[in-house]
Amino acid sequence: MARISVLDDDVSLDEPTLIEGFPGVGLVGKIATDHLIDVHEMTHYANVHCDGLPPVAVYRESETAATTPVRLYADPENDLVALRSDVPVNPTAATEVAACLGSWFDEAELFPIFLSGLGREKGEAPPSLYGIATGDGGEALGRADVSEPSESGLVSGPTGAMLAAALENDRDSVGLVVESDPKFPDPEAARVLIADGIDPIAGIETPIDGLVEQATEIRNAKQQLAEQMRQATEESSQAEPLKMFQ
């Protein structure tokens, strides 16, 4: 049965901002979300039980407790929730997962920030970031001074399905799209996501030095998942230029 199983009823949230971290191009959403959870010392708040998610159990180093592959973490002080996923979502299940999460989004009265990578070969310039919105989400992009897209495109995978559901249900949300390495984990693009998009929209301050200093370590740690995503790109949350489909 589809449900969000809250583990800590003492966590108090008031119309929080949610950061979505399904794996995608450059693993930018996952790297950014994992970093937010770590540096803000966020609490494991809930397990996600949605039809369509892989029926697997996850365990962590030095811990005996098994848990779900998709989990929610909370930071009550910053009114922040982060969705951490250790698995990709099959494209045939993306709509089902989006509907499951969307019903909880409405119940919790939260404001989602969806994250996607746009595959680009790396250059010397910092990765470009732009935002899209549903409902009244454009107001948040304006306050944060996030740029408009420089080209037409689409967002696919579970992130695209959640954006589509937000659009259909007139739910306020934003989608952040950052240029990222199409082949390898990209901590630099994740840094741009946090510094120029997530922090100003959510009204928080996140130390990001570690993402740069530990870039090689992060790439190595995420490489296996990145390889899985390349082998099944249709399962990946990603942004793509629309001209590819015209």
TrEMBL record:
Compositional bias per record (Polar residues), positions renumbered to this chain: 223-239
Region (Disordered): 223-246
Gene3D superfamilies membership: PAC-like subunit
Pfam family, one: PAC2
UniProt-recorded name of the protein: 3-isopropylmalate dehydratase
